[in-house]
Amino acid sequence: MMHMTLYWGKDVTLLIDSWKTDSWLSYLLTLLACFIFSSFYQYMEDRRLRFGSLASSTPSLPSSAAAPLIPKYRRSAKFMTAVLFGVNSAIGYLLMLVIMSFNGGVLLAVVSGLAVGYLFFRFSDEDPVVVDNACACA
């Protein structure tokens, strides 16, 4: 039976019926996987934003030799931005479904993984990436 309120315990089912935890070891490994997966989400978001800034940046040296290469470079950067957006959206929705298990430990693992991933991958003082959309899912 699926829980509809927040609960604390080692018995949890995530995403598929075969991913069930029945011991403390499997529960802790599941929490570690949730932590790593949510940190990876922040890493992928950073890569996507950087590719997006590369795709929209203007070339610094408009020399005649480098000019034919710029459209191909921008096209590939735009394509990679779109691919990373799709991958990152899928990861984000999977993390949302994981949190919908309503297990308190899973919730804390995902939120702390997102915070640590943000700290390591997206919180940099040099070369900030400006986001023009305040929506968390974009």
Automatic annotation (TrEMBL):
Keyword Transmembrane listed: yes
A single GO cellular-component term on record: plasma membrane
Record's bilayer topology term: Multi-pass membrane protein
Signal peptide: none
GO molecular function list: copper ion transmembrane transporter activity
Keywords annotated in UniProt: Copper, Copper transport, Ion transport, Membrane, Transmembrane, Transmembrane helix, Transport
InterPro entries: Cop_transporter
Location of the protein in the cell: Membrane
Transmembrane segment boundaries: 24-44, 79-99, 105-121
Superkingdom of origin: Eukaryota
Similarity-based family: Belongs to the copper transporter (Ctr) (TC 1.A.56) family. SLC31A subfamily.
Record-given protein name: Copper transport protein
Species name: Hibiscus trionum
